[in-house]
Amino acid sequence: MISEILRYTLQIALISFMLGSLVDVGLKLDVKDAWTALHDRKFVLLSILSAFVFGPLLAIVIARVFELPGGYALGLLLLGLAPCAPFLPLLADIAKGDPAYSAAFILIAALGTIIVMPIALPFVAPELHAEMVSIARPLLLLVLAPFGIGIAVRRVSKKWADRSDPVIRKLVSFNVLILLSVAFAQNWDRILDTIGTLAIAAQCIFYSGLALFSYAVSYRLPHDRRCIVTLGSCTRNVGAALAPLSAVPDADPQSTTMCILAAFITLMIGFATARILDRLRPKPGLQINAG
Length: 291
Prior knowledge:
- The protein is mainly α.
- The protein has helices spanning about 1-30, 30-35, 40-65, 70-80, 90-95, 100-125, 130-155, 160-195, 200-215, 225-235, 240-245, 255-280.
- It has a single domain (about 1-280), classed as Na+/H+ antiporter like fold, CATH 1.20.1530.20.
- The chain is about 80% helix and about 0% strand.
C-alpha cells in the first residue's frame, strides 16, 4: 500500500516538476534575445558539439570502461542524450553568464533532445524495444509543450509572465523537495545497490568530464558565453531522460534508478561548477572579447 502511494506520488511529482520547470523557463525566456544569440555560429556549434556529440560518446565510453550493468548503462546513455537542466538560468546567474545565451542554449537543448533522442536510441539502445514515435511522444508532451506554453504566455503578456514566474518558481522548488524525498524513500535500496556497481562514480566522472571538455573547447568565447556552454553541457535534464522509459512497460528499473541518482548528482555538480566558473571569471578590464 505504502509503496503504491510512493510510486504514484513520485510519478506526479516528476511530471509536475518537468511541466512547472519548463513553463517557468519559457516565462522568463526572451525570444528576441535568444534569437540574437542563436546567430552566434561559434556558440551554437560548440553547444551542439558539447551537448549532442561529446555527451553521448562520453556516456558510451564510461559505461564500457566501468562495465556498468545493462540497466545502468542505458540510464547513463539516456542522460547523455538529455543535456541542460531546467535550472540553467539559476546556475548562469551564479557564474555571471549572459541570460540571452542561457535562453539560446535551452532552446538548442530542448529541440536537439526531441530530434536526436528518438533517432539515436533505437540504434544505440535496441534493448529498450521502443520505436521513434513512442520515444518522441513523451518528449513532445513533457518537454516541448510546457516550454512552448511558457513562451506563448510571455509573448501575450510580459507583465503577466513576470508576475507568474515567482509563484511557479516557488512551486517548482517545493516540488523538487518532494521529488527528491520520495525518490529516495522509494528507491533507497536500489540506490544502495548502485554502490558496488560504480554507477555513482560513473555519473560524477561523466558530468565532470563534460564540464572540462566544454570549458576547454569554448576557450575562445567570452566568459559570459563560455560558462553557458559549460553549465548547459555538464547538467542533465533528468525528466527528458526518464521520458522514454515511461513509454516502455518493461523498462529496466536500474535505468530509472540511474536517472533518479542524476537528480541528486547533477544538482551538486551543477552548482559546484557554477561557483568555480564564477571564481575563474576574468577581472574587470582583463577580459578579451573574442566575439
